[in-house]
Amino acid sequence: MVWDACWLTPRMPPEALRTPAQVAAWELAAEGLACSLTCVPDWGERFALTEASGALCLTGGEAGLLYGAYQLMQRHRLGQPWPKGVQAPAFALRMLNHWDNMDGTVERGYAGRSLFFQGGAFRADTARLRAYARLLASVGVNAVCLNNVNVAPPAQGLTDDRFLPDVAALAALFAPFGIRLLLAVDFAMPLADALPTADPLDADVAAWWSARAALVYRHVPTLLGFLVKADSEGRPGPYAYGRDHAQGAAVLAHALRPHGGVLVWRCFVYNCKQDWRDKATDRPMAAYENYAALDGHFADNVILQIKHGPFDFQVREPPSPLLLAMPATRKAAEFQLTQEYTGQQVDLYAMQGMWREFFADVPPKGLCAISAVANTGRDPCWTGHPFAQLNLFAYGAAAWQPRASFAHTTEAWARLTYGLAGKPLAALRDLLLQSRDVYERYTAPLGLCWMVNPGHHYGPSPMGYEYTAWGTYHRADHTAVGIDRTAAGTGYTRQYPARLRARYENPVTCPDTLLLFFHRLPYAYPMRDGRTLIRRIYDDKRLGAAQAEAMQAALQTLRGALPAATFALAEARMARQVENAREWRDVLCDFFHRLSGIADENQPL
Ligand code: GCW
Description:
Number of helices: 16
Bound molecules: 4-O-methyl-beta-D-glucopyranuronic acid
Helix content: 25-40%
């Protein structure tokens, strides 16, 4: 099968190359770039480019040389000056989490089947996997978790003799690209191995985890560590034994420590069996309630991986207050490249703007790592929609420089990938830059999330989650819509530091994009621009759908400028996006009309 080289050249570095520095030297030579390399091992991932009397010199640690080489290649092709001074990533750990199952399916995957697994075993597809490792290195990712956090059989076998030789082979294949692997493990694994309990304070359980870690590291000494989803959406966890999550994490962290292993512990813990009548429980408060008091209790080889927003990767969320708390704990922000709620790689949704806004409120210095759910699979273009490659590319850029410019990254990606210039370049850049706002406008303007179809999460279903157990309500009735999450309401805003609390607490200072996330407002509520709330909802939907139609027309100007197969794919998906946008507009306008009794004067249905 032929797959996209993305921004790279299709010719691959030979398999004989074993170290990142060797790959770096090969890449630069293949690109025709004369540059001398100096390896200073202490530099790690850092690098510096200097130019003396016309001769280029790249200095860096092993991995630094590789990142420097890719940076040099990009700048060279873009005709940009070399960056001055020593370059270092903002986050030492830049992870990608695959939600891949061993049967070959991918949970929330929209880019084909798993790159790693098929039929309960590893795929023997060295060529493609090496190309993948190279692609990830070229964007700056340095850690990959292979399997789904929802660990299903036979993935427990990833930590025993059944599959460890395969993990070791993959680790060796990724190593020349500076990438280390993680495995998602099940907290209750000791039970499956005939122990009567998985209680983290039980001595036999601790011994079991230590033995298991020793076995894993015998096979894969370079493994970065384990990733755990515990007490979340039906997964086993320490709560079953009356233990808190610091106690739960400690037993695994202790087992990993002698091997230098890291435990990435997810904080996506909430009550997924809520009674919808219960208005006192407010799901966005859950992560903070479960963890904030445990600050300082986690071992230093534990990283808490916290979703960037308090809900679950919705189109728009405020930053998770937990990411602004727990100063004595190592924390990672988790993003979702795979477009579960954001268009499923049918609709365009370029994410970097969201990450920039996030990092304006959550200083990168307070975090030690960044993580994202992968959007890649076995599709020839890797990402389902060819333009969804941008989100992977931009994730790497943001992981190095969280405040990197969205427009610059987008333009660089379009130029490197398709060699565009002039009008076509501007057209593609503009399509992508506006894509998030447009998608938000026809799906969830004003922070009103969770109106998606339950289960698969594509398309509108305004009451779909309203009477379920998932805690994701909007409580729209004939007078008002939204949930009051202020101090006078559920109290959620109290979880924020004063600066953000003040911004969100009052509808007058709360940004429009989050208005109905934080407030319950009547349909006649006067918005800043003089329109009523209901008028604004109708207008946003109509404008969003009209903008999707305009995007479809704009895409047509790229015919001939993009490779034919890429254009055909983008065109077909755009037609589906326009259908989706119209559906959202009509279902939501009808829904609010019936509920409120207030007609949309501009365009009655
Ligand atoms: O958003 C939800 C998804 C689940 C996912 C879960 C999680 C892997 O719908 O499919 O499970 O988040 O992040 O654990």
